[in-house]
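Table 4 source record.
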Amino acid sequence: MISRFHFPGRLPDGGEVALPDDLAHHALRVLRLRDGEPLVLFDGEGGEVEARLAVRGKAGFAVLGERRPFDRESPLRAVLVQALAAGDKMDWVVQKAVELGVAAIQPVQAERSVLRLAGERADKRRAHWQQVAVSACEQSGRNRIPEVAPIQPLLQWLAAARGQAAWVLAPGGGDGLPAGERPEGVVHVLVGPEGGWTEGELAACDAAGVRRMTLGPRVLRTETAGLAALAVLQARWGDF
Protein backbone atom coordinates (compact mmCIF):
# COMPACT_ATOMS: atom_id res chain seq x y z
CA MET A 1 0.00 0.00 0.00
CA ILE A 2 1.12 3.57 -0.67
CA SER A 3 1.90 5.39 2.57
CA ARG A 4 -0.56 8.14 3.58
CA PHE A 5 0.37 11.13 5.72
CA HIS A 6 -1.50 14.06 7.16
CA PHE A 7 0.16 17.33 6.20
CA PRO A 8 -0.36 20.16 8.71
CA GLY A 9 -1.50 23.22 6.82
CA ARG A 10 -3.09 23.69 3.42
CA LEU A 11 -1.37 21.84 0.58
CA PRO A 12 -0.66 24.05 -2.44
CA ASP A 13 -1.74 23.14 -5.96
CA GLY A 14 1.36 21.53 -7.37
CA GLY A 15 4.97 22.32 -6.69
CA GLU A 16 7.00 21.00 -3.78
CA VAL A 17 6.65 21.17 -0.01
CA ALA A 18 9.11 20.43 2.79
CA LEU A 19 7.89 17.68 5.09
CA PRO A 20 7.72 18.64 8.78
CA ASP A 21 10.45 17.04 10.88
CA ASP A 22 8.21 14.48 12.59
CA LEU A 23 6.57 13.48 9.30
CA ALA A 24 9.96 13.21 7.57
CA HIS A 25 11.35 11.15 10.47
CA HIS A 26 8.42 8.73 10.27
CA ALA A 27 8.71 8.39 6.49
CA LEU A 28 12.51 8.09 6.30
CA ARG A 29 13.55 6.48 9.58
CA VAL A 30 10.50 4.43 10.64
CA LEU A 31 9.00 3.35 7.32
CA ARG A 32 12.38 3.59 5.53
CA LEU A 33 10.86 5.04 2.38
CA ARG A 34 13.29 5.77 -0.45
CA ASP A 35 13.78 8.76 -2.72
CA GLY A 36 11.19 8.76 -5.49
CA GLU A 37 8.66 6.53 -3.73
CA PRO A 38 4.97 7.48 -4.06
CA LEU A 39 3.08 9.11 -1.18
CA VAL A 40 -0.42 10.31 -0.55
CA LEU A 41 -0.83 13.52 1.46
CA PHE A 42 -4.03 15.01 2.88
CA ASP A 43 -4.52 18.25 4.77
CA GLY A 44 -7.96 17.69 6.29
CA GLU A 45 -9.66 20.10 3.88
CA GLY A 46 -11.07 17.31 1.73
CA GLY A 47 -9.46 15.25 -0.98
CA GLU A 48 -5.91 13.95 -1.13
CA VAL A 49 -2.80 14.68 -3.17
CA GLU A 50 -0.59 12.19 -4.95
CA ALA A 51 3.09 12.95 -4.40
CA ARG A 52 6.62 11.66 -4.75
CA LEU A 53 9.16 11.61 -1.96
CA ALA A 54 12.33 13.62 -2.54
CA VAL A 55 15.19 12.98 -0.10
CA ARG A 56 17.98 15.51 0.32
CA GLY A 57 20.35 14.60 3.09
CA LYS A 58 18.29 14.11 6.24
CA ALA A 59 15.42 16.26 4.94
CA GLY A 60 12.32 15.06 3.14
CA PHE A 61 10.24 16.85 0.53
CA ALA A 62 7.11 15.97 -1.41
CA VAL A 63 6.73 16.74 -5.11
CA LEU A 64 2.99 17.28 -5.45
CA GLY A 65 0.69 15.93 -8.12
CA GLU A 66 -3.04 16.41 -8.57
CA ARG A 67 -5.52 16.77 -5.73
CA ARG A 68 -8.03 13.96 -6.02
CA PRO A 69 -11.52 14.76 -4.66
CA PHE A 70 -11.96 11.49 -2.76
CA ASP A 71 -14.37 11.78 0.16
CA ARG A 72 -14.74 8.69 2.32
CA GLU A 73 -17.02 10.22 4.95
CA SER A 74 -20.14 8.39 6.02
CA PRO A 75 -23.61 9.83 5.36
CA LEU A 76 -24.25 9.08 9.03
CA ARG A 77 -23.04 12.04 11.10
CA ALA A 78 -22.42 10.21 14.37
CA VAL A 79 -20.83 11.79 17.45
CA LEU A 80 -19.51 9.45 20.13
CA VAL A 81 -20.05 10.96 23.58
CA GLN A 82 -17.61 8.84 25.58
CA ALA A 83 -17.22 8.96 29.35
CA LEU A 84 -13.55 9.13 30.31
CA ALA A 85 -11.97 5.71 30.69
CA ALA A 86 -8.69 4.80 32.38
CA GLY A 87 -5.42 3.51 30.95
CA ASP A 88 -5.11 3.30 27.19
CA LYS A 89 -8.82 2.60 26.69
CA MET A 90 -9.52 6.12 25.44
CA ASP A 91 -6.77 5.76 22.82
CA TRP A 92 -8.39 2.54 21.62
CA VAL A 93 -11.88 4.09 21.53
CA VAL A 94 -10.71 7.15 19.58
CA GLN A 95 -8.74 5.08 17.09
CA LYS A 96 -11.49 2.56 16.36
CA ALA A 97 -14.30 5.14 16.34
CA VAL A 98 -12.43 7.09 13.65
CA GLU A 99 -11.97 3.90 11.63
CA LEU A 100 -15.72 3.31 11.94
CA GLY A 101 -16.47 6.73 10.47
CA VAL A 102 -17.43 8.78 13.52
CA ALA A 103 -17.87 12.50 12.78
CA ALA A 104 -16.55 13.70 16.17
CA ILE A 105 -15.73 12.46 19.66
CA GLN A 106 -16.91 14.27 22.78
CA PRO A 107 -15.19 13.10 25.99
CA VAL A 108 -17.29 13.68 29.11
CA GLN A 109 -16.54 13.44 32.82
CA ALA A 110 -18.96 11.05 34.51
CA GLU A 111 -19.48 10.45 38.22
CA ARG A 112 -17.88 7.00 38.08
CA SER A 113 -15.05 7.88 35.70
CA VAL A 114 -11.81 6.53 37.14
CA LEU A 115 -9.83 8.99 35.04
CA ARG A 116 -10.07 12.60 36.27
CA LEU A 117 -8.68 15.36 34.08
CA ALA A 118 -8.72 19.13 34.32
CA GLY A 119 -6.66 22.13 33.27
CA GLU A 120 -3.33 21.50 31.57
CA ARG A 121 -3.56 17.72 31.98
CA ALA A 122 -6.90 17.72 30.18
CA ASP A 123 -5.49 19.85 27.36
CA LYS A 124 -2.51 17.53 26.91
CA ARG A 125 -4.66 14.41 26.82
CA ARG A 126 -7.04 15.97 24.34
CA ALA A 127 -4.11 16.91 22.07
CA HIS A 128 -2.84 13.33 22.35
CA TRP A 129 -6.26 11.90 21.42
CA GLN A 130 -6.49 14.30 18.48
CA GLN A 131 -3.18 12.90 17.20
CA VAL A 132 -4.56 9.38 17.62
CA ALA A 133 -7.46 10.48 15.40
CA VAL A 134 -5.02 11.83 12.80
CA SER A 135 -3.11 8.53 12.73
CA ALA A 136 -6.37 6.60 12.37
CA CYS A 137 -7.29 8.77 9.37
CA GLU A 138 -3.91 8.05 7.79
CA GLN A 139 -4.49 4.32 8.18
CA SER A 140 -8.17 4.17 7.24
CA GLY A 141 -8.14 6.43 4.19
CA ARG A 142 -10.21 9.28 5.64
CA ASN A 143 -9.35 12.74 4.36
CA ARG A 144 -11.25 14.75 6.98
CA ILE A 145 -10.15 14.53 10.59
CA PRO A 146 -12.85 14.17 13.26
CA GLU A 147 -12.49 16.60 16.14
CA VAL A 148 -11.85 15.35 19.64
CA ALA A 149 -13.71 18.07 21.54
CA PRO A 150 -12.67 19.55 24.90
CA ILE A 151 -13.70 17.47 27.92
CA GLN A 152 -17.01 18.50 29.47
CA PRO A 153 -18.95 17.35 32.52
CA LEU A 154 -21.85 15.17 31.40
CA LEU A 155 -24.49 17.55 32.79
CA GLN A 156 -22.95 20.48 30.93
CA TRP A 157 -23.06 18.54 27.68
CA LEU A 158 -26.67 17.50 28.27
CA ALA A 159 -27.72 21.10 28.87
CA ALA A 160 -26.33 22.13 25.46
CA ALA A 161 -27.62 19.07 23.59
CA ARG A 162 -31.35 19.28 24.35
CA GLY A 163 -33.50 18.52 21.35
CA GLN A 164 -30.82 16.68 19.40
CA ALA A 165 -31.02 13.04 18.32
CA ALA A 166 -29.22 11.13 21.08
CA TRP A 167 -29.20 7.68 22.62
CA VAL A 168 -27.55 6.60 25.86
CA LEU A 169 -26.38 3.01 26.23
CA ALA A 170 -28.06 1.62 29.33
CA PRO A 171 -27.58 -2.12 29.94
CA GLY A 172 -30.65 -3.81 31.36
CA GLY A 173 -33.06 -1.10 30.29
CA GLY A 174 -34.16 0.87 27.30
CA ASP A 175 -35.12 -0.01 23.77
CA GLY A 176 -33.23 -1.82 21.07
CA LEU A 177 -31.33 -0.05 18.35
CA PRO A 178 -33.31 2.70 16.63
CA ALA A 179 -35.16 1.88 13.44
CA GLY A 180 -36.83 3.93 10.73
CA GLU A 181 -35.29 6.60 8.53
CA ARG A 182 -31.93 8.15 9.40
CA PRO A 183 -32.47 11.27 11.53
CA GLU A 184 -31.62 14.63 10.04
CA GLY A 185 -28.39 16.14 11.28
CA VAL A 186 -26.10 14.65 13.88
CA VAL A 187 -26.74 11.45 15.87
CA HIS A 188 -25.17 11.21 19.35
CA VAL A 189 -24.30 7.94 21.14
CA LEU A 190 -23.52 8.22 24.88
CA VAL A 191 -21.31 5.58 26.52
CA GLY A 192 -20.70 5.36 30.25
CA PRO A 193 -17.44 4.73 32.15
CA GLU A 194 -16.13 1.44 33.55
CA GLY A 195 -18.55 1.56 36.48
CA GLY A 196 -21.52 2.53 34.35
CA TRP A 197 -23.85 5.52 34.60
CA THR A 198 -25.39 6.41 37.94
CA GLU A 199 -29.16 6.50 38.30
CA GLY A 200 -28.90 10.27 38.61
CA GLU A 201 -27.04 10.53 35.31
CA LEU A 202 -29.58 8.33 33.54
CA ALA A 203 -32.39 10.46 34.99
CA ALA A 204 -30.60 13.57 33.67
CA CYS A 205 -30.41 11.93 30.24
CA ASP A 206 -34.14 11.18 30.39
CA ALA A 207 -34.88 14.80 31.31
CA ALA A 208 -32.77 16.05 28.39
CA GLY A 209 -34.66 13.87 25.91
CA VAL A 210 -31.87 11.35 25.42
CA ARG A 211 -33.37 7.94 24.74
CA ARG A 212 -32.11 4.82 26.48
CA MET A 213 -30.77 2.05 24.27
CA THR A 214 -29.58 -1.47 25.00
CA LEU A 215 -27.29 -3.72 22.98
CA GLY A 216 -28.78 -6.99 24.11
CA PRO A 217 -28.61 -9.13 27.26
CA ARG A 218 -24.83 -8.95 27.74
CA VAL A 219 -23.00 -6.08 29.44
CA LEU A 220 -20.24 -4.70 27.21
CA ARG A 221 -17.15 -2.91 28.46
CA THR A 222 -16.91 0.84 27.93
CA GLU A 223 -14.27 0.40 25.22
CA THR A 224 -16.52 -2.09 23.38
CA ALA A 225 -20.03 -0.71 23.74
CA GLY A 226 -19.73 2.51 21.75
CA LEU A 227 -17.84 0.84 18.92
CA ALA A 228 -20.47 -1.90 18.68
CA ALA A 229 -23.23 0.71 18.56
CA LEU A 230 -21.42 2.73 15.89
CA ALA A 231 -20.91 -0.36 13.74
CA VAL A 232 -24.60 -1.27 13.89
CA LEU A 233 -25.71 2.30 13.16
CA GLN A 234 -23.32 2.44 10.21
CA ALA A 235 -24.94 -0.73 8.88
CA ARG A 236 -28.43 0.73 9.42
CA TRP A 237 -27.95 4.36 8.40
CA GLY A 238 -24.40 4.73 7.13
CA ASP A 239 -22.27 3.16 4.40
CA PHE A 240 -21.60 -0.38 5.63
